[in-house]
Amino acid sequence: MKPLRQIEVRNLSKEFVLHLQDGLHMPIFSLVDMDVDGGECVVIHAPSGAGKSTLLRCLYANYRASSGSVNIRHVPDRNGGGDGDWVDLTTASPQQIHAVRRTTLGFVTQFLRVIPRITTLDLVAEPLISRGMAVDEAQDQAKSWLARLKIAPRLWQVPPATFSGGEQQRVNIARTLISDFPILLLDEPTASLDEGNRDTVIAMIQEACDRGTAVVGIFHDEYVRRALATRLFPLEAIQSVAMEA
Ligand SMILES: Nc1ncnc2c1ncn2[C@@H]1O[C@H](COP(=O)(O)OP(=O)(O)OP(=O)(O)O)[C@@H](O)[C@H]1O
Ligand SMILES: [Mg+2]
Fold it and tell me: Domain ABC transporter spans what residues (predicted)?
């Protein structure tokens, strides 16, 4: 059976309007089309500053697109069966975007948005608990993700605010990948990791793809790209300097 399409981007354009610079318009990319099927790992490939992270943030609706559409196949209830419904994140309500992010769309950035006072274990177990899993079971799963990512057990009861960059990144990966989202957006998830942890994360992403997850990633590291990419997606940046409004 052919894998289902999970992401359909059409004519997506993004420009920033710099209000502190008299409304200067800074076009980043225009008319991007992108289709991603389940099981694919599409790697956005372009030089630094070309707009790769901006594109990923538009796919997560962190940045509002200037024009175009970002359709995501949203599965509201993973146990309910069915193929899900298309939701266009460029026109969706905040509630719809929240729902898509809860069950369908995961995003790993290089940085963990730390919530003060919540322990690492609770942070990683929370997505499962919020979906109705018993606390003990969710914590057991969280422990096994943390152990596989070599987060020392002495750190599990500590909030990750004081963790090193690489530790925070691994907590971030555990918290997102534990949810088994059908779609994953990954912005340099291995950037701060040593080789051993990098290989673990490569294996985790590969396992997700093998289960049918659709992945869109940015990986500067050639080794990671070669290991994971089923296809490169060249992003053509708009070369012009910022234009006057
Ligand atoms: N919120 C913002 N406001 C204004 N300009 C922005 C904003 N976010 C990004 N940019 C600009 O958009 C351009 C593309 O940035 P982006 O972070 O998407 O590049 P990138 O391809 O991910 O680069 P890198 O490989 O270095 O991470 C840059 O010139 C950046 O300054
Ligand atoms: Mg970037």
Answer: 7-245
What does the DSSP 8-state code read for residue 29? Answer: E
CA angle 206, 216, 48 (to 5 degrees): 115
pLDDT value of position 128: 94
C-alpha torsion 75→79→83→89, nearest 10? 0
pLDDT at residue 105 in the model: 96
Mean pLDDT, 10 residues at a time, over the chain (245 residues)?
92 93 91 97 95 96 97 85 90 96 91 79 94 95 98 95 91 94 96 94 97 96 96 81 44
Lining residues, ligand 1, CB within 6 Å = 16, 26, 28, 46, 48-54
Query: Residues within 5 Å of ion ligand 2 by Cβ?
Result: 52-53
Query: Residue 165, Cβ neighbours under 10 Å: how many?
Result: 13
For the chain, the structural domain boundaries read 5-234
What pLDDT does 114 receive? 66
50 alpha carbon – ligand 1 mean position (Å):
7
